[in-house]
Inverse folding.
């Protein structure tokens, strides 16, 4: 499926196959395994568990061959005071590393997320300022997501906003989606390893090849939309706009590459898109019935 | 008498931001404090949202067990609607949550816990031809002989301790650790087949499941289920038994109160005859479940409001979190507040939830002869009794028992699904209604309470979550929380390497994002 998507994109885009082939002979390719540090802020570890579903490479190869995972909260043997020791040592060294941030950073209530007696923002600030690049993994890190939903009190900030507040200029890549697609992360890392540069990014610092098209544009139900055939109930074949679908305002390639090795995705599962990769996720209403009296037309355009 | 303090912050290989402190006297834990250090406030932020959003948003409380929040939220809203899903709706929901629970149990054993027991460095002596083990051996060898500042991360550094000594058992467990990643990915595929995606399956809605079952997706599910079953019976079972036999002392370590709470879990297609019984075992006596006995205390939690005698679910719609100054003041007090987690109580008692509670309560209820047989068999093989399930290894063994019984039930239920028939019926969101949804998450008894206002929006929402039961702090009467009690009395060989404490806390599989929500 990836090859199809990439073939349809611009010529300089690299496919997974090309990137993986380039790694086949590391010494001649002149690359070295980058060091990674993975931190979790206000989030749920869902992007970490999603990452473990990656199929293009094995987790063993990822850990032992492509990268060096210095710290991951859910995978490291390291525990307790060994953790701040590692992070402090890394921050004090002049080694290059990549920071992967999962979850948002509670700015109004720094004590809402503490690690080793320090607000998580202190760790992120220190490690991000010396990192080669930062990757915001998932919607909470990319735009705040559920951790920043209306009604929360912690002032959760996306990584981009947080870095700007602190005046940190480290290059950043946003990989929204709740959960993050493992393919997006691995592709971004391989691209950086191979070309020492980031993939082409849009204004929201998302890799273009994943986030250029809306869910709606590539939806398998798009022909039904063109025929003005709108499902009025779950289980009907038509376009899901009348049931609250946020495909038109959500940019992600989930309809093309699916989740869990393209096993399925939300619209194929008969459910309207809930906009999980969108900057405004979560909106106050997700799925609703076609005649729900509570719906005032807003983001959802109803057919006339 | 010598007293020392051991603080572990963060405890890794659990979900989220967990800190705990112990006071050790003469090598034995005299007192303990467990702290959940992440607060998001999702529960009360839901007020004013459409009740259907709770099914998607409460899943984001936890990226490890989102399925259980989806199920509990759907059941709560269906309860308010006065509605039950049809046969296919119930079966498909079971196929999603069952596969996910199995995935979570494997994740807990291999990724989160195994490294406390198995010795990864045993691969250095590997002489065989397995590609995974060979790659791992060559990598560990080159890393440990290199001049790197963090060799063999993320497997080193680690606490020193009494790891498994049997070379073959170690190699087999390392092999299965690597293998389990693919098995867990297969289980997530099973979830996605009917849930749409995993984590955070979207298709569980109040009314059933939105995915239409077909001959094709049922066949895919069946194929993956067979693969998983092979791994569970030939690998997971063997590794659990190897660890159980190598560390028999851990059937005595990590003893808590021995009070167990569980909710009915995994019904048949009619929504009844659950595979696991709900109920409470208190001081060895099993009684039927009484949801009215549940209250939450927050005397030692970082909130401004006075806790009082414990608040019933939906008893408050606002808990004011401490501000930064107040938080720092509490941190300085010798007996100050110390966790974002509240402290649920059942008739005033501290209860343990989780796989051990599920197994012990179901055994006592006598309603599942298959479970009784399996437990009796394992007890004979391992020379343990039911009281030993209140222990580190009792909890691990109970997860295997859960997985084993779930797989059997999933195989039966996948055959009961009628291809082509939608398992979803539309139902309007009611006005001025209340609902309760209870199930078993991987970590134990999970309840969602919803109250809907006169406009059909959420008036109040409450989640009482397994890790809140297990990891909650002391209450107004000073009773330590469930995990705190598991730590008290533990013997530490080397305070610089408190591996014993990490094993005890991880055995409860804490999830802080869940506990505080």
């Amino acid at each position: 499926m990836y090859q199809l998507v990439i073939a349809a994109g611009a010529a300089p885009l690299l496919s997974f196959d090309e990137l993986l082939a380039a790694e086949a002979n590391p010494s001649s390719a002149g690359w070295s395994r980058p060091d990674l540090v993975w931190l979790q802020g206000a989030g749920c570890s869902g992007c970490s568990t999603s990452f473990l579903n990656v199929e293009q490479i094995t987790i063993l190869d990822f850990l032992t061959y492509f990268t060096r995972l210095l710290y991951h909260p859910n995978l490291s043997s390291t525990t307790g005071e060994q953790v701040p020791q590692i992070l402090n040592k890394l921050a004090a060294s002049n080694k290059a590393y990549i920071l992967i941030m999962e979850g948002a950073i509670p700015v109004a209530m720094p004590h809402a997320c503490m690690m080793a007696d320090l607000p998580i923002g202190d760790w992120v600030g220190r490690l991000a300022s010396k990192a080669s690049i930062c990757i915001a993994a998932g919607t909470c890190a990319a735009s705040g997501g559920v951790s920043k939903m209306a009604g929360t009190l912690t002032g959760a900030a996306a990584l981009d906003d947080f870095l700007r507040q602190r005046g940190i200029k480290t290059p950043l890549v946003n990989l929204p989606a709740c959960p993050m697609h493992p393919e997006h992360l691995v592709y971004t890392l391989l691209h950086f390893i191979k070309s020492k540069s980031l993939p082409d990014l849009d204004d929201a610092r998302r890799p273009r090849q994943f986030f250029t098209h809306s869910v709606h544009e590539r939806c398998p139900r798009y022909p039904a939309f063109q025929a003005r055939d709108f499902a009025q109930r779950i289980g009907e074949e038509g376009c899901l706009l009348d049931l609250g679908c946020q495909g038109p305002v959500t940019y992600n390639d989930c309809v093309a590459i699916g989740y869990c090795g393209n096993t399925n995705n939300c619209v194929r599962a008969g459910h309207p898109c809930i906009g999980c990769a969108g900057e405004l996720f979560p909106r106050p209403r997700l799925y609703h019935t076609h005649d729900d009296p509570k719906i005032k037309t807003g983001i959802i355009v109803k057919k006339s | 008498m010598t007293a020392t303090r051991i603080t572990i912050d963060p405890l890794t290989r659990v979900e989220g931001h967990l800190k705990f402190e112990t006071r050790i006297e003469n090598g034995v834990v005299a007192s303990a404090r467990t702290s959940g250090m992440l607060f998001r406030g999702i529960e009360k932020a839901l007020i004013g949202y459409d009740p259907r959003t709770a099914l998607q948003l409460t899943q984001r409380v936890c990226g490890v067990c989102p399925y259980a929040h989806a199920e509990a939220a759907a059941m709560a809203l269906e309860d308010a609607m006065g509605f039950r899903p049809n046969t296919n709706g119930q079966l498909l929901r079971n196929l999603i949550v069952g596969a996910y629970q199995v995935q979570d149990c494997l994740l807990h054993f291999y990724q989160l816990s195994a490294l406390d027991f198995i010795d990864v460095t045993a691969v250095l002596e590997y002489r065989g031809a397995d590609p995974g083990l060979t790659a791992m051996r060559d990598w560990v060898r080159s890393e440990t002989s290199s001049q790197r500042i963090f060799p063999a991360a993320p497997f080193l550094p680690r606490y020193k301790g009494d790891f498994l000594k049997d070379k073959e058992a170690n190699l087999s467990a390392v092999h299965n650790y690597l293998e389990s990643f693919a098995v867990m990915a297969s289980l997530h595929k099973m979830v996605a087949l009917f849930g749409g995606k995993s984590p955070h399956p979207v298709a569980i809605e109040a009314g059933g499941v939105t995915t239409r079952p077909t001959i094709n997706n049922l066949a895919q599910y069946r194929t993956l289920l067979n693969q998983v079953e092979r791994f569970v019976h030939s690998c997971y079972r063997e590794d659990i038994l190897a660890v159980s036999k190598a560390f028999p002392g851990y059937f005595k370590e990590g003893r808590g109160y021995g009070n167990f709470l569980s909710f009915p879990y995994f019904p048949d297609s009619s929504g009844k005859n659950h595979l696991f019984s709900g109920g409470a075992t208190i001081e060895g006596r099993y009684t039927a479940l009484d949801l009215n006995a549940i209250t939450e205390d927050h005397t030692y939690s970082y909130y401004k409001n006075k806790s009082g005698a414990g608040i019933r679910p939906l008893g408050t719609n606002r808990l004011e979190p401490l501000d930064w100054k107040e938080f720092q003041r509490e941190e300085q007090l010798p007996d100050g507040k110390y966790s974002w987690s509240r402290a649920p109580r059942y008739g005033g008692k501290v209860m343990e939830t989780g796989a051990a509670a599920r197994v012990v309560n179901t055994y006592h209820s006598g309603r599942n002869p298959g479970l009784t047989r399996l437990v009796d068999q394992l007890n004979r093989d391992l020379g343990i009794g039911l009281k030993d399930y209140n222990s580190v290894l009792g909890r691990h063994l109970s997860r295997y028992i859960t997985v084993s019984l779930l797989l059997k039930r999933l195989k039966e239920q996948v055959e009961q699904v009628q291809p082509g028939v939608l398992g979803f019926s539309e139902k309007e969101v009611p006005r001025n209604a209340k609902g309760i949804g209870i199930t078993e998450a991987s970590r134990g008894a999970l309840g969602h309470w919803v109250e809907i206002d006169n406009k059909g929006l959420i008036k109040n929402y409450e989640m009482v979550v397994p890790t809140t039961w297990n990891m909650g702090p002391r209450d107004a009467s000073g009773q330590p929380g469930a995990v705190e009690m598991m730590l008290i009395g533990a013997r530490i060989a080397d305070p610089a390497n408190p591996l014993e404490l990490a094993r005890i806390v991880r055995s409860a599989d804490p999830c802080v994002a869940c506990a505080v929500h």
Remarks:
- Chain B touches chain A through 98 residues (CB under 8 Å).
- The first helix of chain B runs from residue 42 to 45.
- Residues 3-143+164-516 of chain B form a domain with the Cytochrome-c3 Hydrogenase; chain B fold (CATH 1.10.645.10).
- Chain B has 15 helices and 13 strands.
